[in-house]
């Protein structure tokens, strides 16, 4: 049986890409009994008598999946945050990073609109953030509204990968995609405008060919709560903390009030950024409050 990838799900049909062609398929009836729902990005086994009449027979194991947007087997997330207009939002970026790390997705941070920074003070502040995240180990790519971005590097980034975009509204996601691939001709602030969707049309996730890879056509993450992330695992999702966990005296250390905590010692020595640590404490409290509610 042929094996392909679901590139679109719409109105009960799954569109499977196989050897350059797309086959419209339905899911097997027993998927519902087994409480399995095919997702865009799934690798599947299918059979088809024609391009519009096929059935998905089996879904292969996923390496990751997101609930909102509903998509599986993502390789990387481009987290696009603007330097200005809107202002750089480190707490939101850290929230995104926690979710990306939790789902074993490789994050790439893009800082857009660098050329629109109006003051030297603001430029130094943004450059400090760029240095901070790079020192933690994240890839950070500063871009401008012009053609300053290293487009060759972007094309390499997308090669053979499934990429999802995320970030604040108005940060320049569509502008960046247009810059990399002018044929898309996307309207600003509307990544999915090339599909001709009206305001009241049902939204769906689709993988579109982009360079030598695939980009998820989706409005991005619509849910950023911490469901599924435990208090004891949150620090694992902060790489600069995760590297120090073995140095804590107590197993299951929350890195807040315990003695002989390697994370707190690194914080005192300015080896861990205070703002990032504050975000960690805030997220930890949110998880505790969430647990109490349920």
Automatic annotation (TrEMBL):
Subunit structure: Monomer. Associates with 30S ribosomal subunit, binds 16S rRNA.
Protein species of origin: Fictibacillus aquaticus
PANTHER family for the chain: SMALL RIBOSOMAL SUBUNIT BIOGENESIS GTPASE RSGA, SMALL RIBOSOMAL SUBUNIT BIOGENESIS GTPASE RSGA 1, MITOCHONDRIAL-RELATED
Keyword RNA-binding: yes
Keyword annotations of the record: Cytoplasm, GTP-binding, Hydrolase, Metal-binding, Nucleotide-binding, Ribosome biogenesis, RNA-binding, rRNA-binding, Zinc
Cofactor note: Binds 1 zinc ion per subunit.
Domain EngC GTPase per the UniProt entry, residue ranges: 72-222
GO molecular function, one term: GTP binding
Matches recorded under PROSITE patterns: ENGC_GTPASE, G_CP
Cross-referenced InterPro entries: G_CP_dom, NA-bd_OB-fold, P-loop_NTPase, Ribosome_biogen_GTPase_RsgA, RsgA_GTPase_dom, RsgA_N
CP-type G domain residues: 63-224
GO biological processes: ribosomal small subunit biogenesis
Location relative to the cell: Cytoplasm
Pfam families: RsgA_GTPase, RsgA_N
EC number(s) stated in the UniProt entry for this protein: 3.6.1.-
Function: One of several proteins that assist in the late maturation steps of the functional core of the 30S ribosomal subunit. Helps release RbfA from mature subunits. May play a role in the assembly of ribosomal proteins into the subunit. Circularly permuted GTPase that catalyzes slow GTP hydrolysis, GTPase activity is stimulated by the 30S ribosomal subunit.
Designated name of the protein: Small ribosomal subunit biogenesis GTPase RsgA
Claim: rRNA-binding is one of the keywords in the record: yes
GO cellular component, one term: cytoplasm
Sites where the protein binds GTP: 112-115, 167-175
Binding site for Zn(2+): 248, 253, 255, 261
Family listed: Belongs to the TRAFAC class YlqF/YawG GTPase family. RsgA subfamily.
Cofactor dependence: Zn(2+)
Enzyme class name: hydrolase
């Amino acid at each position: 049986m042929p094996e392909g990838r679901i590139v679109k799900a719409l109105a009960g049909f799954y569109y499977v890409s196989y050897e350059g062609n797309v086959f419209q398929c339905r899911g097997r009836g027993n998927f519902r009994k087994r409480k399995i729902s095919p997702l865009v990005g799934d690798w599947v086994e299918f059979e088809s008598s024609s391009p519009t009449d096929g059935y998905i027979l089996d879904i292969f194991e996923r390496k990751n999946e997101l609930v909102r947007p509903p998509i599986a087997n993502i390789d990387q997330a481009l987290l696009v945050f603007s330097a200005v207009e809107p202002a750089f939002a480190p707490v939101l970026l850290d929230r995104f990073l926690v979710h990306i790390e939790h789902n074993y997705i490789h994050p790439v941070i893009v800082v857009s609109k660098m050329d629109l920074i109006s003051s030297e003070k603001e430029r130094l502040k943004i450059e400090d953030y760029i240095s901070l995240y790079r020192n933690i180990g994240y890839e950070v790519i500063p871009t401008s509204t012009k053609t300053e971005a290293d487009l060759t590097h972007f094309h390499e980034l997308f090669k053979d990968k499934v990429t999802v975009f995320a970030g604040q509204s108005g940060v320049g996601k569509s502008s960046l995609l247009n810059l990399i691939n002018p044929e898309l001709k996307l309207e600003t602030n509307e990544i999915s405008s090339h599909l001709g969707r009206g305001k009241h049309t049902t939204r769906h996730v689709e993988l579109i060919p982009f360079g030598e890879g695939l980009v998820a056509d989706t409005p991005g993450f619509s849910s950023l709560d911490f469901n599924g992330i435990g208090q004891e695992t949150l620090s694992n999702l902060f790489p600069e903390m995760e590297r120090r966990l073995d140095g804590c005296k107590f197993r299951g250390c929350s890195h807040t009030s315990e003695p002989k905590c390697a994370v707190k010692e690194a914080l005192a020595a300015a080896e861990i950024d205070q703002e990032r640590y504050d975000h960690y404490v805030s997220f930890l409290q949110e998880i505790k409050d969430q647990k109490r509610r349920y």
